[in-house]
Design goal:
Elements lengths: L16 H8 L4 E6 L6 H14 L4 E5 H6 L9 H20 L3 E5 L5 H10 L5 E7 L2 H7 L4 H6 L21 E4 L5 H14 L5
Parallel strand pairs: 1-3, 1-4, 2-3, 4-5
Helix pairs in contact: 2-8, 4-5
Length: 201
């Protein structure tokens, strides 16, 4: 007889999140970097991760392209698949938070509803939405892969910002304008926020 969902029960961890946070000497959270392709999400997430790691924090980066090579290799770019992509990442990010880790996620995540659904999975203050704001012109100028050009010529359907919508965060914890400040300045702004919320020392 095969198992049904009703026979699956949640098992509480022997080591609690708070115990892991205490040993790590910092709170755990998700820094959810969202923005257009080319806005600088991955660059910023990795720069922050490098700084936090150097300070002794337990950290990890979940990057959109990398995840689609493995965990989400079966998903395309329809609205439904984009939603499932974010749902899965939300579940993975929550596991990292439970493990006491500061996890930075770099995904376009174009829909507010999907980002809000991840927020709802986490505890108070554990989801930090970082809107990586950058003008479309600058994103296109930075586009070494030529994705925007392909999208404008119709070679890439459903490309966010061109043929598919991007919903800007309505109330993000942070807005980082990467076409107005350096990576170093942006990292410092995020660190100040984390310190102000007593996530890190």
């Amino acid at each position: 007889m095969s198992e049904t969902k009703s026979e699956i029960v949640w098992h509480e961890a022997a080591v609690q999140k708070e115990e892991r946070q205490k040993r790590n000497a910092h709170k755990s959270c998700v820094l959810w970097f969202t923005g257009l392709s080319g806005a600088g999400k991955s660059t910023l997430a990795n720069a922050l991760d490098t700084t936090l790691f150097a300070q002794g924090a337990t950290t990890y980066v979940l990057d959109g392209d990398n995840i689609r090579h493995g965990l989400n290799h079966d998903l395309g770019f329809s609205n439904e698949d984009r939603q499932e992509n974010i749902r899965r990442i939300g579940e993975v990010a929550k596991l990292f938070v439970d493990a006491g880790t500061i996890v930075s996620t770099a995904f376009i995540s174009p829909f507010q509803e999907d980002r809000d659904s991840v927020r709802e999975k986490l505890g108070e203050g554990e989801f930090i939405e970082v809107f990586v704001k950058c003008s479309l012109d600058e994103c296109e100028r930075r586009d070494v892969k030529g994705l925007y050009e392909k999208a404008r010529s119709g070679k890439i359907p459903s490309f966010t910002g061109i043929s598919s919508p991007y919903e800007e965060p309505s109330q993000p914890e942070l807005v980082i304008e990467t076409d107005q400040q350096t990576v170093e300045e942006s990292v410092e702004e995020i660190l100040r926020y984390l310190q102000s919320k007593e996530m890190i020392n």
